[in-house]
Amino acid sequence: MSDPISPTFEGDYLLTQQGPFKLFSGATLQPAQLHYSIYGKLNEKRSNGVLVCHALSGSARVADWWEPFFQHNAVFDLSRHCVIGINVLGSCYGSTGPQDTDPVSGKPFGHSFPLLSLRDWVRSQAILIEQLGIRRLHAVIGGSLGGMQALQWAIDYPDRVARAIAIGAAPLTAMGLALNHLQRSAIRTDANWNGGNYYDGAIPLSGLALARAIAMCSYKSAELFEERYARNPNRNGEHPELSMEDRYDIGGYLDYQGAIFTRRFDANSYLLITKAMDNFDPATGYRSESEALSRIQAKALMVGISSDWLFPAANIRALTVRMQEAGANADYVELESNHGHDGFLADLDRMAPIIRQALE
Amino acid sequence: MSDPISPTFEGDYLLTQQGPFKLFSGATLQPAQLHYSIYGKLNEKRSNGVLVCHALSGSARVADWWEPFFQHNAVFDLSRHCVIGINVLGSCYGSTGPQDTDPVSGKPFGHSFPLLSLRDWVRSQAILIEQLGIRRLHAVIGGSLGGMQALQWAIDYPDRVARAIAIGAAPLTAMGLALNHLQRSAIRTDANWNGGNYYDGAIPLSGLALARAIAMCSYKSAELFEERYARNPNRNGEHPELSMEDRYDIGGYLDYQGAIFTRRFDANSYLLITKAMDNFDPATGYRSESEALSRIQAKALMVGISSDWLFPAANIRALTVRMQEAGANADYVELESNHGHDGFLADLDRMAPIIRQALE
Lengths: 360, 360
Hints:
Two copies of one chain form a homodimer. With 360 residues, chain A is α/β, with parallel strands linked by helices.
């Protein structure tokens, strides 16, 4: 059960629901398998579970993307906390996704994979958490899409979450919806897209790379780009002023980010997950946002990132105020960071004390 | 010579240079034909010429895109000013561009069209202005790429420009370079791109539409998008929460903007012009930016737009300070507008008095 990546890793598991999993839309998904990872051990009362929800391209392997939080007990103290990561349905990291075989057709689901919502992800996770014998989570934590899940947990399962920590998360603005729309368009523009049924042929790599490159611009701040890349020519020695193909450094960076992403992510998963992100709205399935927020019993911490333009800090602050007005015990903290939205992954030294304190 | 669009329109002309036009890069262009439009009349001394430079997708027909500036003498008083518009080389509105026939190959230039720079555009315009017998322009004005031309004019031909008015123009930041790079990638991702040689086949429409949609996000402000589109479903009655294809209103808007753009613009022109925009740097061809800026003799007005995130007002203010430090007579004004970069086209009521005053 030991793992080379993290000495504290306890194991990787799969939970498969027998029978169809009913989705919020009314559609069903079968099979519905969840990949999850456990770091540390559940205590006797099973009261020390900390569910860490991943963002768009993350996985159940929390220590793969929040590794420093495990070092020197920076945030997670595995002598006290049992950290659980669960890959969301529709992703490509072990839970059922569009690349898996649809037992009805015998072919990959592809573009016929049903639409998913935050409510589906959280309900599937709640079933898993129940299977683990956890009546109430010590905390649910996440950044970006992970933060949306933390909020959705606090709304949908108020008595099963003691603390909810959501970083850089709120319903997307019109600009955020625009950027996700462009990313999906990029994938669909690819010559190999083939309506999402590309698993037995060429993969829409350049579309997915472009989607990622667009996303990277929204994850980072203009200041950070200026600081790191400015107007420098690409570092491999290109001459952007002399040739149409030669790039500035920022172009080389974006192309590289796009290319490495295509080696690890699936285009249909990208569509499904960005679509769920688009549709995140606390009011979903309730009479109003206020009714939804009034359900929250967890101590909630909302974290805005000062230079985040995808989920502007002001919007997260405003959402916190609406939570308070609905009667929730919610606090707002702002992470001072020039990393933009990615601050929750990149500025961990500043992030750590905020989360550590909220876990007490 | 009358024109239905504008009662003050005097005429459309073509100027063709005999022999090759030498470009700043060392390459040559042949033929080099400029399409230009004249509104009003040159006075006897030919001292009332106002050159209005267009932005990325504009044309020589100034009254087509700055129409309100001609009404009621809002900005241009054609009893006093003679307004001249010149389509930039490489564009697709009458001046020589990649869709034209290369006399050497007998086929459209396509992707083999030489790289252009701001210096080339301005030099070709200076030749034309000389042909018109204008020794010194009363003013050169432009927004965005047009503003870059106005600045380049003041630098390259200091004694031939009395006033230079540049709105929302400065060298692109790393974020701006990133966004242009993504737009060119979108075009190249299109299945019909064919290395830019698509004139006798299918056109890379979806790539060009996506490029335009990305650009629209950078031309507008997040506030304006929020005000106009918020999280509303597409106005034609789509259900983004129920279907992968259904869109939010902002998605419908961007798709529409992309689609109408493909009817009026050429993908190779788009690449050439965004590339020239990338490469705009006052220092080009001089020892330093400071040396270049010290050449300016025109009274210069630099206009920043408060909500512009493509050319942030702070950068335009900073450039103005560097102009002043280099000894130029430069002023800075900020247009308060929530329209973003497009404020120079969209917020004309506020823009008009600023330019009108600068023209005195």
